[in-house]
Amino acid sequence: MIEAGIISKISHQDFDTTYQKLKSVIENNPNLKIIAELNHQANASSVGLDLNPTRIIMFGNPNLGTPLMQNAQTMGLDLPQKILVYQNAEGVVNISYNNPIYLRDRHNITNQENILNKIAAALDKITDAAII
């Protein structure tokens, strides 16, 4: 599903399994480096609020991201890459990320189709591996 520049997929796994598979796929790719992990559910809980399981993992590959930022420094708002894993009120686990083509248009990136296509293919492959 594509909505407003977001690609979302439904996982066939539970929340924890989906997140751990995603993290493992990224960690085992020598071209990628995890920058940060955020547990939004834990953050909400720390101030007494409830939130369904919601975590985001930020990771990057400077060989691909840097040329995009050289083209348009505002791309730094959307880099490093982020993938969100969340469980909705019905218990369905989703995995979502920014569509690189949407980011191209958002930041007016030019002459970087090869990099954008590589990123799109990598994100598709990474997320597919996490949801099966």
UniProtKB/TrEMBL annotation:
CDD domains registered for this protein in UniProt: DUF302
Domain DUF302: 39-100
InterPro entries per record: DUF302, TT1751-like_sf
SUPFAM superfamilies: TT1751-like (SSF103247)
Name of the molecule in the record: DUF302 domain-containing protein
Domain of life: Bacteria
